[in-house]
Specification:
Length: 337
């Protein structure tokens, strides 16, 4: 009975991602999935692991740990240089490339990557590609199988499911060595007892999003709300948008605020009842400059990341629009204190 429930959940998650159920391997989250993808690919092919500086830290760190990481350039919007990818994989017969990493959408600035072009270039050269879809799953329409993605990582809590559960998607026909060994769970592709309650929660979230046109509605609502946030913020002098303004994930925007420290702005907004981040959620405990913004060549010290979700209302957006100008003006008058 438990096995049937797990397989039913696998079908729901697969449906959301546009793949077949057998391609879905349940993991502890997108971090484990990305590590498994990179480690497995490095075991299959003795070649370079390509990774842009805007990738999530789990991808960058896993790639760096192989000792074979090659950094891909990005533009000031955080977009991967597709010509650099094509050149790299086109020379893989001279210098082998094991894997190219390409996130679907950036976790700090929201910029959408040229995923289809990257996948096409890699497939033409016979090079594997891993797509970090953690921020995109449940936010934009995905069809990973139709696009020809070899490996993809997703996380349940990013789309409204419970924490501690995610999935690695593996292209049909690709035999990837497992990162976690010691058991035959997940068809011997990831050892360890499955977290059944979390898997059920993952499936419930996937079903809720995929059914009744909810995804399209949430995409439209999120894009409208973040556009309104951008408009309100950019009316304040010395505030700029980081990342793509139009070709972006619908739920994330990133701002640069001239003349004040990001932490001070966060505190001011918090006092007004508004939650925001500086950098990514995974780096919020550190005071280091954002690696993503550094890779883009913009000010990595003064960023403000705003995101919306299914519970965000027009009143929430209006509250930010009312509070933000005063917070920035007060801090500037104090010299950014």
């Amino acid at each position: 009975m438990v096995r049937a429930a797990i397989e039913g959940a696998r079908e729901e998650v697969a449906g959301l991602l546009g793949v077949r159920p057998r391609q879905v391997i349940f993991t502890s989250g997108a971090t484990e999935a990305a590590n498994a993808a990179i480690w497995g690919a490095s075991m299959l092919v003795p070649g370079d692991i390509a990774c842009a500086g805007v990738e999530h830290s789990s991808v960058r760190d896993a790639a760096a740990r192989t000792g074979r990481m090659v950094t891909l350039p990005v533009d000031r919007l955080g977009r991967i240089d597709i010509d650099a990818v094509s050149t790299l994989v086109g020379q893989s017969d001279v210098r082998p490339v094991a894997l190219v990493n390409c996130q679907w959408g950036n976790h700090e600035v929201g910029t959408l990557q040229p995923v289809a072009e990257v996948v096409a270039a890699c497939r033409a050269a016979g090079v594997l590609v891993h797509v970090d879809a953690a921020q995109a799953a449940g936010r934009v329409q995905l069809s990973l199988d139709a696009m020809g993605v070899d490996l993809a990582s997703v996380s349940a809590h990013k789309l409204g499911g419970p924490p501690g559960i995610g999935a690695l998607v593996v292209r049909r026909g690709l035999r990837l060595p497992p990162l976690v060994v010691g058991g035959a769970q997940e068809r011997a592709r990831r050892a360890g007892m499955e977290n059944v309650p979390a898997i059920m929660g993952f499936a419930a979230a996937a079903l809720a999003i995929a059914g009744s046109g909810r995804l399209a509605a949430e995409m439209a609502a999120g894009a409208a709300q973040t556009s309104a946030l951008l408009r309100a913020a950019l009316e304040v002098e010395g505030v700029v948008a980081y990342g793509a303004v139009t070709d972006r994930l619908p739920h994330i925007v990133c701002l640069g605020v001239e003349g004040v420290e990001a932490e001070a702005v966060l505190l001011g907004l918090d006092q007004a009842g508004i939650a925001a981040h500086s950098g990514s959620a995974c780096s919020s405990e550190t005071l280091e400059p954002s690696p993503v913004l550094e890779a883009m060549g913009v000010d990595a010290q003064r960023s403000l990341r705003l995101s919306v979700g299914w519970s965000t209302t027009g009143a929430d957006v209006a509250a930010f629009a009312a509070a933000f100008p005063g917070v920035v003006a007060r801090l500037r008058s104090l010299g950014g204190a």
